Amino acid sequence: MIELINVTKTYANGVDVLLNVNLHIGKEEFIFIVGPSGAGKTSLMKLLYREERPTVGQVIVDRVNVVELNADQIPYLRRNIGVVFQDYKLLPKRTVFENVAFALRVTGAPRSTIRRKAMQSLELVGMLRRANAFPEQLSGGEKQRACIARAIVNNPPILLADEPTGNLDPTTSWDIIQLLDKINRRHTTVLVATHNKNIVDDMKRRVVALESGRVVRDQQLGGYNV
What we know:
The protein has seven helices and ten strands. It is of the alpha/beta class. It has a domain at 1-80 and 158-164 and 191-226: P-loop containing nucleotide triphosphate hydrolases (Rossmann fold, 3-Layer(aba) Sandwich). The strands form two sheets. Strands 6-7-8-3-9-10 form a six-stranded mixed β-sheet, sandwiched between helices. Strands 2-1-4-5 form a four-stranded antiparallel β-sheet, covered by helices on one side.
């Protein structure tokens, strides 16, 4: 499903954020990417949806080397990858429904399809009753649920969540992780970059640990620390 082969990412200032990373992620896996700030977690995520390109190496997503995609092909890649952000990135002047529907509208989907799929997505994440609310009217947990609804409305086979609980209290954080687990059980490959030790330890999923841009541990049924 996803493979990074000898991937190094060096920024223009000479800083290496990823160093010779080799990683294979199978279909329908649930994986935590852990490590201290600056370890390379976000950079790794950005490579997968071609927000950035590696300096060296190959990034394979569903048998496609995304490094070789031209600008016109990138939007089609991103239709198959949902992304959840720590800071939500919701459109402030659009309702929850409109935020979710927007992800379908840009693909040219018919209006009837947009409404049906958006409502289904909101129902799945428990936000149907808040469909007409604006982002400023939502709690942090509700904003994240709306962000997840937007990310999965196209039913992508891959969902990336970059610090999805970073701004949330412990109870809400657990609710969000349980929602991501539910989505994973619907046959979606899920990658979660996180600092949340308690959640990683409790979930007992595959853990890939980064340190200074290198993979230092890849453990099934792992915890946050060795």
